[in-house]
Structure prediction request, 280 residues.
Amino acid sequence: MQTVNTVVQLRAAIKKWRLAGESVAFVPTMGNLHAGHLKLVEAAKNYADRVVVSIFVNPTQFGVTEDFGSYPRTEAADQEKLASVNTDLVFLPSLEDMYAPGARTTVVVDGLSTVYCGASRPGHFVGVATVVCKLFNMVQPDVAVFGAKDFQQLIIIRTMVMDLNIPVDIIGVETAREESGLAMSSRNSYLSEPERVTAAKVYQVLCRARTSVLAGNQSLKEIEIDSMFFLHKSGFHPEYFNICRSSDLKKADADDRELVILTAAKLGKTRLIDNIQFTR
Prediction:
């Protein structure tokens, strides 16, 4: 496994692969890797000859009161994990490589960036779209692989790629879960042991809501309200619980068939997000 720190080194390595006729898959991460990230790398291998993984804690997607300073940096352990699944190249750029002094250009995906997580984290998805667009320009992959746990992010990236004619196929990989059903996340390390038990109820309420939708005995609005109440009485501070069309995240109505239920809730100091996709 090769590790590089500059765009010049990155492009030199990829150029050799291209000259050999090899295709490239890309997995962008912020490090503090877990089994879910490694699942993305394994999936990427099915789509290309070579796999590049980036590790960069992106400051522009953190709000002023969020955990940028305390976000876990575990680069040595991350590289060991990536080597164990035969990653071809790890890109570890500096802040200076990612953002030139005085950089003023951002990427905004209108509408999708200001709802759900975007409403409670103003500017978050502008930071995400901008850094992913920059990484796509640096790596120039054929395929990029993202986890479906961040479903709103996945839809935003797909929209950006389509709108800007970026020649990369976006692959979403099913959420990796712990045995309890808790979605794997780098921020799960913030949870205490009792909180981890409670946190599993997020997936439980998603499954229960899906069952209610498929049964058709309640309105979608009633299901959303009941689910918010369940989270609240279970000890969470729920931000939203919405039943949406999976194609564009608009609120679902009775005629929609391809659905996703999105939720976000705080448990103690930890913000948890999750979703469940299904067809009715």
Q: What stands out?
A: The chain has two domains: 2-173, 186-279. The longest strand covers residues 258-267. Residues 124-139 form the longest helix (16 residues).
